[in-house]
Design a protein that fits this description.
11 strands, mainly beta, globular, seven-stranded mixed beta sheet, four-stranded antiparallel beta sheet
Length: 118
Amino acid sequence: VQLVESGGGLVQPGGSLRLSCVGSGLTLADYAISWFRQAPGEGRERVLCIKKGEGRKVYLDSVKGRLTISSDTAKNTVYLQMNSLRPDDTAVYYCAAVLKCGDYDGYYGRGTQVTVSS
């Protein structure tokens, strides 16, 4: 089982990125897929989650209207579209396959770095 994130990088404030989470050895649609982030010196925080039959959940008020989660079942991929990025969005972003959106135990990727800076 493996989750691989990609799409991170350096972007200016106000810019956009789309992160991808590709699963192998598991079918992402069978799980709740959460995006977490961890900024330097900070704890891990759950950002968004998507689960078939339950829709999407946003966990941080600061990302509402700017970050959205979607999935492509045929590609076994979940996306995190990030718009209007701000410096405080700088973090390592991880995807995780868990049983329920509120769970922490599950399969995690290694993360992708997002840096928002001018």
